[in-house]
Amino acid sequence: MKKKLRGVVALSLVMAVSVGLTACSTTKEEPKKSGNATATTAANVKKGKVSVMVYDRGLIPASEGTYDNNRWTKWIQENAPFEEVKFIVVPRTEAPQKMNMLFAAGEGPDVVANYEDMTPFISKGQALEITDELLAKMPNYKKTLDKYPALQKLTTVNGKRYTVGTVSPVSPNHTAVIRADWLEKLNLPMPKTPEDLLAVAKAFTEKDPDGNGKNDTYGLTLNADSQRVLSHMFGFGNPEKYAVVDGKLTFVWDRIQDWLKFTKQIVDAKVVDPDFLLDKGDKALTDFTNGKIGIFLTGKFSQLNSPTFANFKKANPTAKLDTFDLPATKYGTFEGYINGGPSVVGFINAATKDPDAAARYINWLNDPKVSDYLVNGPDGVYKKRDAEGTVVVVDPAKNKIEYDYATDYSIIRTFDFNLGSAVSPLANEYYNSYLKSSDPVLQEFGDLYYKMAQVVNKPDAIDPRKWQQTLPALASDTLLKKTNGTKAVDDYLLKALAQPNLTAEKAVADAKELWKKAGGEDVDAFYNDYYQKNKDKMLSPEDFKQLKMAPELLPSAKKNSKIK
């Protein structure tokens, strides 16, 4: 197979991690059995207790139990080398608030595994430093850390480690999804500039693209996720609004002003739901699913969201979806949130009574066989590997009940299963699995996801948020200034979107004063000073470029693809 790799690091990464997403090799050594589950081969000496965070996403069927008591937690209880593993359940939609409450009350879990911003916990001294001595008790995790310099950068700040991370293939998250059938009907080109994007949105709003004779469609979404995707167009992310400009780490007020000006044009053109400020995401999804929105800027169609696509197709059987690069601006070419590469996925509670137990739990999760089981389940039950090495779903209906809710028990994991060179490094990309399905809807989603993967794996597709993961934790007084200032600025800019008589220039000038009043300039000075002293040790777009690989369809997947 012809592979388009970018550097030796990319080859090393993809061979290691692509198979890790869905590793169920039929040739691998069979671990010992424990009841109906597969146990790790390590001697399971039951010693100590540990508490662990898990998200509640509201997906678990009543027949399966609860997020702290189900078939997966029981397997962990039975096979982990602990007398007890206690799960602390945190609602996904309220995770930061709930975590703050738990830690303030002294009830935080020993091991935090999540996707939230962890720097506030480090700043407050709530994350335990992972010393070399403690790291030595996590040999499975240390192998990954030693293998990928980018992960070393990510998890080391000011020469100290406070977080644990993982490395995974680069894949789409927040992308632009568009009604290709509406483009065809209205004879419109795919948008390539911000002006094109606005023009297409206006046409989708005003020219009755669904042909029902009613004025009941909108051009695009503008919920919170969509606002963030649009901010990426102008080269800044959230919550950090910094970029390197002329060799300095700078709060990018000029980019914010241009983003606000463009977004206000969208609002003023009446091409979005006028109640967008009240939308937390569900209404935008519902409206798009019901065929009332032409461009969806969100992560609802990323890797594991084929049910969302199926719901869309059920409501719009003849509709066609496509994706496109975010339009370039004078600040460069950027993309929405990109999954993969090095990511922070957890930390150890500084108040834990047994740091060794917390370290042993992280190490146990990074055992390849444990990661394999928690990602895929027992061989052949939920997934199986075909002749080309692609892992495919065995029974979607069964998975929906017993498997789909369980993804967060393996947030901390290894992707390096060492299945051997006979396994294609691309075999486990989701688009291949979807395209090999006998379900034409999943096949169609496979094509869409393949196109999204092509977009994010372009060498110069930059997620402006990613590299800022290595910004340092702030001292408590500076953190308070940042927290108060950020909230004041974000709240004001959001209100400015809905005020037609308030110009972007005036709104940004007011926001600057709010930032200054909160002490934000001290935050700016601290961050730039840190950057000047540590820029060679911080993540950069180049670190992510080296981890990308051009997607490629396997032969049997290509047979079902409609892409010419």
From TrEMBL:
Signal peptide positions (record):
1-23
The UniProt keywords, alphabetically, are: Signal
| Annotated SUPFAM superfamilies | Periplasmic binding protein-like II
UniProt cross-references to InterPro entries, sorted A to Z = Bact_solute-bd_prot1
This protein is called what? Answer: Extracellular solute-binding protein
